[in-house]
Amino acid sequence: MASSSVRDLRIVLLGKNVSENSQVGNIILGTAAFHSEASSSSQQHSVRISGAVEKRNLAVINSSHLLQPHLSIHLITERVRECVSLSAPGPHVILLVLQYNDFSEQDKHRVKTVLNLFSVKAIKHTIVVTTDEETRTAKIASIVVNNTVGNFKWAPIVTNNSITKLIKECGGGHLQFDRSNAGWRSEMIRRTEEMLKKEQEEFLICNMYEDGGTSVDNDPSSSGKKNGKLNQGITSGKTKLNIVLCGYNTSLKNSVSKMIRGKPQKQTEKERNKVCVKKEEKIDGRQMTVIELPALTRLSEEEVMRETLNCVSLCDPGVHLFILVTPVTPLTNEEKAEMEKITRIFYSNEHFMVLFTSDHTIDKSVSDSVTYEESQRIVSLYGSWYNVMGLKDQRNSVQISKMLDFIESIKTEPYSLQTYTRAPEKRVRHELEEKLSERENEIKELQEKIKTLAPDGVKLNLVVCGSDRRLKSFISNLILNQSERAPELSSECVRRDVKVCEHLISLVELPALFNTQLSEEEVMRQTLHCVSLCDPGVHLFIIIIPDAPLNNEDKAEMEEIQKIFSSRINKHIMILIYQNPEHQTAELNEETQSVIESFGGRHDFIGPNTQVSMLMEKLMQMFEENSGVCFSTETLLEAQMEKLQTFEEMKRRIHSLETWFQSKGTARFFSGGYSFPLTVLRGSGLRPGSHVSPPFLGVGYAPAFSFRQDTQRLQPSVS
User: Fold this and answer.
1) Which domains does the chain have, with CATH numbers?
2) Residues contacting residue 582 through CB under 8 Å, at least 6 positions apart
3) H/E element holding 10?
4) Which of 110-124, 409-423, 449-463, 678-692 has the lowest mean pLDDT?
């Protein structure tokens, strides 16, 4: 049983990011022990630094290089052995230092592979430490759309699945790294002690030792227990391995098959098989099945589906590893096409390894060529595992033995028939996720371009209204920073764009709506055109009036604006009152105050000395109060529909009233309209000659009516 408090604590740090690993190690040790940017040579080896912290002796073994992609199997094995040696007699905890924005399913597979090289129980001694918050970009990479495409039903949106699943398997769960919290280290130590107590172990005993042997303890429960003995050497209980060799070059696959099975390399004629070739051997106490998959690009589509299904079904319970055999030399177009086909059909990074082959003994020049861009692109296409072998190298038997031990240590579920049938669904889902990620990047780029045009990212659409052309011209020139010009007589909306105080401004001058030569149809057309010029809508309407008492034309213009745009315009209205320098006053007469209140009450004073920066500040404040909501063409049409409904309701009530009068014998229907007794009209407030019209509804709606006196009746006539 583990003691309640661990005085000596050995901590292994694993992670992809060297800088983040170093920061976590420095916080644990309470000093800048690890450099954030280590040299390329030191990154390839584990570093152990010890120190006394919180009355404990802490030893941190920083092994950030172990999770780097594109490491060969041999190199990973050697580096794990080095890390185990530095943490002898065994680590108490393994901290996985991960980042949400840089962790994929492929990375999770690599993590589990490395942990299994330590011990089958290593994951129970592991805590996931994340150093960043989960962002939208990270979530997009792991989104599964709640939709049906073809025959595939997808699950709802989830967070980063790769890290979430890994956390559930780790014995110590998850800790969010907090640089500013001094108590973070204490929480990590407390979590480690709880984990050791739960596992009833003092530390983790690993399978890999300095002498190079590997073992799998037949009794996992004895691993790491106090006074437990190490079982060194090769395990006798080796499991059966099923391997599929694939690639374009048939003779290479045949040579590798013989090399794995320990058969002599004889010169044979090139055979281009169209079916899978299965070989079974017992090698070094291990039962082996080696299958050569024919080149898929040489087969018909029907033959491709038959043979790919066949190679999986020949392996019970499934394929432990697909080995893509390719020469070290540059790829031909045929070899590239073969690789793309293999990837699309099997679609798995967890079950593939790339084997680079050479006709010569492997030397530094051959090993270096594998690190070139094209070779590493091939490796990344199939995950991250690769190896290099010379077909005539005398050391092949040792390398083959190590490779088979490594394959067995991976502990990945075999690639079964069920995995094969689900591969198309998995591929479609991942391709869509990539498209979503690309689209998000495009949106971000577009947003950045918009910011270069408008640093604050705000575009303001303004409409200047009023009956006085001179005042409208003044406010437009003030905002647009243009020299004063004579007001132009125009019945058309005018839009101008300019950058003012770091904001993009679109300004439209709306012609006067009342007492003009425009017909009602033209007024409505101009109003709609004015709003449509502002995309996605008008943020602010500016009505400018003089500080003198309002004349009839000013009042009629404001009534027309409110009648057309409805009360919905009120929260978008700013009334500016123009004052002459010699007659400035903050007081408004009662009538002007009443009109301003009917538009929501927002107003301000301006004059010849007004600074555009101050005006823009007030306009932006109003914009922010409205949360950027605008008055769109849809809003205008909705307002007109409301008026139509009101008019229809008025007609319904008049009809009901006329029916009631008929029932009383006090009214009769005329072809020109309704005729009402004088007593009724007097009671309603109407007088002979009064004009009644419905709310303005645009072109094609009901006409207005006027009432004339006719003896004892007032009859409506169409005006």
Assistant:
1) 8-222 (3.40.50.300), 241-415 (3.40.50.300), 459-630 (3.40.50.300), 638-718 (no CATH)
2) none
3) strand 8-15
4) 678-692
C-beta separation of 242 from 289 below 8 A: yes
| Helix (H) or strand (E) run with residue 691 in it | strand 691-692
For residue 184, give the 3-state DSSP assignment: helix
Query: How far, in Å, CA of 165 to CA of 97, rounded?
Result: 15
Work out the end-to-end distance of the chain between its first and last CA atoms, rounded to an integer number of angstroms: 103
Query: What does DSSP say about strands 386-390 and 321-327: parallel, antiparallel, or unpaired?
Result: unpaired
* Residue 313 backbone class (left: φ over 0; alpha: ψ -120 to 50; beta: rest): alpha
Instruction: Judge whether residue 694 has pLDDT over 60.
Output: no
Q: Average the pLDDT over 119-143 and give the result.
A: 70
Q: Give the global pTM.
A: 0.39
CA–CA gap between residue 96 and residue 128 (Å, rounded): 5
Give dist(CA 617, CA 497) in Å, integer.
Answer: 18
Vertex 55, ends 53 and 61: CA angle to 5°?
A: 40
Once rounded to an integer, what is the mean pLDDT over residues 301-315? 89
Lowest mean pLDDT of 163-167, 379-383, 607-611, name the range.
Answer: 379-383
Closest CA to 285 of 208, 354, 220, 233: 233
Kindly indicate the confidence band of residue 368, based on its pLDDT and cuts at 50, 70 and 90. low
How far is 8 from 55, CA to CA, in rounded Å? 10
3-state secondary structure of 685: coil
Cα(485)–Cα(477) distance, integer angstroms = 8
Q: Quick check: 199 and 120 in contact, CB under 8 A?
A: no
| Torsion angle of C-alpha atoms 561, 567, 572, 573, degrees rounded to 10 | 50
**Upper half-sphere CA count for residue 417 (Cβ side, 13 Å):** 9
Q: Which residue has the higher pLDDT, 124 or 500?
A: 124
Neighbours of 189 (CB within 10 A): 21
Q: What six digits make up the tokens of 334? A: 């045929």
d(CA 690, CA 716): 10
Mean pLDDT of the chain: 75
Rounded average pLDDT over 244-257: 90
Q: Among 170-174, 483-487, 574-578, where is mean pLDDT lowest?
A: 483-487
Q: Give the 3-state DSSP-derived string for 670-683, with helices as H, strands as E and coil as C.
A: ECCEEEEEHHHHHH
Which residues have C-beta within 8 Å of that of residue 694, sequence separation ≥ 6?
643, 647, 650, 701, 702, 704
Query: What is the DSSP annotation of 554-578?
Result: HHHHHHHHHHHH-GGGGGGEEEEEE
Strand 540-546 with 459-465, pairing? parallel
115: part of which helix (H) or strand (E)?
Answer: helix 105-118
Residue 414 burial class via C-beta count within 10 angstroms: exposed 0-12, middle 13-18, buried 19 and up: middle
Dihedral class, residue 677 (left if φ above 0, else alpha if ψ from -120 to 50, else beta): beta
How many whole angstroms separate alpha carbon 488 and alpha carbon 493? 12
Q: How far apart are CA 401 and CA 547, in angstroms?
A: 97
